[in-house]
Structures are given as C-alpha cells and as structure tokens.
Specification:
Elements lengths: L1 E10 L2 E12 L4 E5 L4 H4 L1 H11 L8 E7 L11 H11 L11 E3 L2 E2 L5 E2 L6 H8 L4 E5 H7 L6 E5 L2 H8 L29 H13 L3 E4 L6 H6 L10 H14 L12 E2 L7 H5 L9 H4 L4 E4 L7 H5 L2 H6 L1 E6 L2 E6 L3 E6 L15 H8 L4 H4 L4 E4 L5 H4 L10 H19 L12 H7 L4 H13 L4 H17 L7 H19 L1
Parallel strand pairs: 3-4, 5-8, 8-9, 10-15, 10-16, 11-12, 12-15
Antiparallel strand pairs: 1-2, 2-4, 6-7, 13-14
Helix pairs in contact: 2-3, 7-17, 7-20, 18-20, 19-21, 20-21
C-alpha cells in the first residue's frame, strides 16, 4: 500500500513543503529512504523502528520504500522522523489515511516514541498556511511557537501512541497555548556615560533611523560602553518584526522559545569567518547579519576583522539581503540590520596628542577598511578622551537616561512609518534613492547648502543619498515634517569622518 503525508524542510530561513511517500510491499524486509536525504535522515530508519515498537505499534517486516519529494531538494535534519512514521502507519493500515488529508506533521522521534522539538517551529506553520493545510501536528515543545500564526490549527502531541489515538478519534488534545512574550530585562543605561555628548547624539540618530554608525577614538574612551547601551534606546519591534525575529531565532536554534520583545544585538568576535558573518556552510545556515535582522550588528575593533569578512558585508548593507550560493543551490537570507562599529584612530591607539604613528602607518591602518565599506556608513563619530573632572562626577543629575532617549526614538520611528506607509522601507535607512528624493525635497536654501558643501568635499551618489536620509531622521527626532538646512549641516558633519577615511 502507498500513503503520503506533508512535512517541511528548512531552506535558508524559509520552509519548503516536502511530501513523504511510503510504499509497503511484500518482499524481503528492507527500509530504503530516497530523495536526497542526509545522514541524519538515513539514520531515521532506526529511530522510526524503535519508536513504533516501543509505542505498542507494529513495524511491518516488509519491503519499505520512503521517498522525499521533490527529489531535487536536499533534505537535512531529523525533523522528517514523524512524517516518515505517520506515513508508514497509514501505508500499513494502522491509522486511517483519510485523516491525514490537509494535515501536515513535523517532529523528531526518540527511541521511546516521544516527540522532540525541531528548528523552524514558526516557519513551518507559516509554510503550511501558504500551501493550504488546515492542521499542523507538532511536538509539545514546539506548540507555543507554532501557535503564534493564526488561520492554522496547531495540534500538540507528546508521543506516537497519542498521535495514533488522535487519528482514531480516541483522544482530543488541549488547544496549543500561544507563546508568551519574553520578559524585558533592564540593560545598561546611557546615564552611566560621562561626557561624549556628540557620540550620544550620533547613537540616538542611528537608533531613530536604523543608520550605520562608526565610532573612532583611542582605547578606553567609551566606544564599546556606548554601543552596549544602544539596545536600551532602540524602539520595540512591531508585531510583524517580532515574528520575523522569532522565526530567525527558531531556524538558527538560538534563544529561548518566547516571542521577541527586543531587537537583536549581535557582537561577534573579530576572528569570525566570512561565512560565519554573512552565512554559508554545506547546508547554508544564517550568519550574524541575518541573526541581527531588524536589529544591530556591532563590530568592535573593526580593522581587526578579516578583509574578506568585511568585504562580504557590502551586499547586505546595500540590498538588505544575502545571497549564498553553494554548488547549484542558492539561498537568500534577510539582513536588514544597522551596522555599529568601533575602531581606534591609529595603530598605536594613543590619544591624538600622544600619537607617534608615521603617515605610512596611519595609511596602512586606514586601508584595512575598504572604501566601498566606509562609503556605506551613514555616520562617523570621533570619540575623544573625557576630562577627569567629568569622570569623577558621581551625581546623575543632568545626565539623560536611556528611557527618555528611547521615547524620542520611538516617536521618530512612528513618524517614519506614517510617512512611508505601504512602502517596503520601515525606517529612513531602508529608503532607496527614489524614495529618498521624494521624501526630502531639494529646493531653496536646502539645495544651496548641499551645493556649497559638495564644492568643498565632493560626495558620491551613495553618500549624497545617505546624507539626506540622516537629515530626514534628524528632522523626525525634532518632530518636524520638513528637513531644514541645519539638519543637512549636522548630517554633513557626521559624513566628514567617512570622507577623511576614504581619503586616507
């Protein structure tokens, strides 16, 4: 007899429908799996056999053939165990096949018949909804995450025996509870930072418009300290963004199984490889830029990262996606993140007054950062040594806390969403050239200011648009509908640092 059941395979951060077909025929006992399975799927033969027998079900001693369709799609992982077992039960007549219509399953099996959770618990029901299924059977531990999506019945099952009872109408499961939101723990506060008003302002602009930021200064002046306080002023994700973040975490197998309430903040070590940063591997997995989707990627000591890894950032910074090609397979990963980086001003790392680096040494240090990468940075901020009198201050009076800055950032993001409407951009940094020109009208004093600035320091086309986006964010922070020449002046001031680095 032949039976089939639907399941899903992780493809990048998306899910693809896979039909598991099982054919049971009289012959020498064999168990063959075809359809480009990896080693974990081939090992499922032993898990399925033991799980069926230990659940009081029959394992047919016949010729068993399992096909995973479509055959051209590579399948990996143990999430096909449950689908193979259910199709085998239906093909051998142990469960009614008609109960599997418009029903999909996903889960790993233990030898005792229990269902273990798998990666992609949120993307699988999304794929099931897209492909027209009404029910999705998952392990108990995946039920909360899968139930976040509506219009699909999620059934949580603890083991194979209960699943058999369910298909025979001998057991009714309780409704799967929705995943609770994560609790937001208080983080470091901007009020702890003494001085550095210019850097704090740049940090606020970067958070309000999702702009890329580079902080340059000697060691110990507070660059990393400032960056670590950025999550405290970022706006909370929208419901759609929260689902995206939760989905990516689930596919990557990181974090707790809770609905995201904060934007991600990723800070990889400078020894990371290019594939670790942008994604890759034999079965392509998301890299740090995807794990930072809708959040921040912080690269400390930027020149110490490998040149290949830094150059790999060009595409995601521009296109907000990563295309990874392995052999004849191409996978697309989302990568809409804000880059925040920090570096010293010179190889010795001393303050400007004490620096003894030669011009050639400074040039070599600056050339570790490629021109195309620096041209994609919206704000470059110099972070100088804080006077000792400011450091010994113990009172917080006059020091603005993160909470008040965050309120301004949230208000600025709300203005951007209202203005952008149904456009693909969610923040000012996401706007393309056409949308930027429609949003910031170049006329009168504004155009004259830009012409004068370009005469002193020529801007690339990309740099010109990025100045306009930063100026638009500055106006949003002040609650103004139109960009003023003063906004452009401030944006150009942060662009000067990038031009200096490009000229080095």
């Amino acid at each position: 007899m032949l039976a089939s059941v639907a399941t899903f395979a992780i493809d990048g951060v998306d899910s693809r429908e896979v039909t598991v077909e099982v054919d049971v025929r009289v012959g020498l006992p064999t168990f063959t799996v075809v359809g480009l399975p990896d080693r974990a799927i081939r090992e499922s033969r032993e898990r399925v056999r033991a799980a069926l027998l230990n659940s009081g079900l029959e394992f047919p001693m016949k010729r068993l053939t399992v096909n995973l369709a479509p055959a051209y799609l590579r399948k990996a992982g143990a999430s096909f165990d449950l689908a193979i077992a259910v199709a085998l039960l239906a093909a051998s007549g142990q469960v009614p096949r008609e109960r599997l219509d418009r029903c999909a399953v996903s889960g790993e099996l233990s030898l005792g018949g229990g269902l273990r959770p798998t990666r992609g618990a949120l993307e699988n029901p999304s794929a099931g909804r897209r492909t027209g299924y009404d029910r999705l059977i998952v392990p108990d531990d995946n039920a909360g995450e899968a139930a976040l999506l509506e219009d699909l019945e999620v059934i949580a099952v603890p083991n194979l025996a209960r699943l058999s009872d369910l298909l025979h109408d001998r057991w009714s499961p309780s409704p799967a509870p929705a995943l609770p939101p994560a609790t937001r723990a208080p983080g470091p506060d901007l009020a702890d930072v003494r001085g550095q008003e210019d850097a704090k302002r740049a940090l606020e602009i970067a958070a309000a418009g999702a702009h890329n930021l580079l902080m340059i200064g000697p060691p110990g002046v507070g660059k990393t300290m400032l960056a670590r306080r950025l999550p405290g002023i970022l706006p909370p994700p929208t419901p759609e963004e929260a689902l995206e973040i939760t989905q990516i975490r689930g596919v990557a197998g990181i974090g707790e199984p809770t609905l995201a309430t904060d934007r991600p903040f990723r800070a990889p070590h400078h020894t990371i490889s290019a594939s670790g940063l942008v994604g890759g591997g034999g079965h392509p997995r998301p890299g740090e830029v995807t794990l930072a989707h809708r959040g921040v990627l912080f690269l400390d000591e930027l020149p110490e990262f490998g040149r290949t890894a830094l150059d790999a950032l060009r595409q995601p910074l521009e296109e907000r996606r990563v295309e990874v090609t392995r052999g004849q397979r191409s996978v697309s990963f989302p990568a809409a993140f804000a880059l925040v980086a920090a570096c010293n001003g010179c190889p010795c790392g001393k303050p400007t007054a004490d620096c003894d680096c030669t011009a050639s040494a400074l040039g070599r240090y600056a050339r570790r950062l490629s021109g195309p990468l620096i041209d994609r940075v919206d704000l470059v901020c110099r972070v100088e040594v804080v006077p000792t009198l400011d450091l010994i201050q113990t009172e917080r009076s006059g020091l603005e806390p993160s909470a008040s800055v965050r309120r301004r950032v949230i208000a600025a993001r709300a203005r951007q969403r209202d203005r952008l409407g149904n456009a693909s951009a969610l923040a000012n940094a996401d706007m393309d050239a056409g949308l930027t020109r429609r949003t910031v009208r170049l006329e009168g004093a504004l155009a004259a200011r830009l012409v004068a600035a370009a005469g002193q320091r020529p801007l690339s086309g990309r740099g010109f648009d990025r100045v306009l986006r930063v100026a638009r964010t500055i106006a949003d922070l002040d609650g103004r509908s139109r960009v003023s020449p003063d906004d452009v002046d401030e944006a150009l001031g942060y662009r000067v640092g990038a031009l200096d680095l490009l000229a080095a």
